[in-house]
Amino acid sequence: MWTDTHLHLDASEYDPDRREVVARARALHVTRFVLPSVCAKNFSTVKALAHHTPGAVYCLGIHPIFVDQAQPDDLQILRTCVVESIDDPQFAGVGEIGLDGFVPGLNWEKQVQFFNAQLKLAREFDLPVVMHVRKAQDAVLKGLRMYKPRSGIAHAFNGSFQQAENFLKLGMKLGFGGACTFTRALQLRRLASELPSEAIVLETDGPDIAPEWISKTRNAPEHLPRIAEVVAQLRKIDSTALSRMTQLNAETALPALITQE
To answer: Strand, coil or helix: what is 50?
Structure first.
């Protein structure tokens, strides 16, 4: 059984393509999915989509790339939605939140403000976090040290070994997906091969971050088993052992996954 810890599905809960995406994944034993929101406008859509997708859980949060478009009231909307969802077994945590130092022109100060506010919310309600961390490893670590959310995932991790160790010390897991399938990604592949077994979860970030064999085209959770084969080869273990390991890690990071099938 594979758990795709980071997946963006199409917005419409009735989209037949979405159903085909899930069906193809489930046929390959990818049976659980994490659906993060990116802005206040899609909180209700992501929640509804999770409830119409077998094996799915959802997160509510404001993505750093969408922070520039966010209004101050959006943080209160997020809080209200979290309170309304707190007893929903498919509600997994606060996300996708984080910081992005790569995309030009983003308001860094506003990103930090929204990130810290969402970390504080996660801490208040004892919720996990799912984080976007791009060219911002140390700044994200600073926020985690300040607010100390219970657990979470730094998705699409691409930092140093020292930064990885610091994330692990703070109770986070590190997401690996299509990027580590490229043979030229030497540092990332070394991380995937040498980090401790309790560090790693698998993800696609579909439809983004496609693996090498479908480079520059649409990604989907059906590719997760083949991504896992690459990671298993890097770690010199079989894919069954990797499945057990990463499933346990995903459930530790996002306990809502335990109740899904």
So the answer is: helix
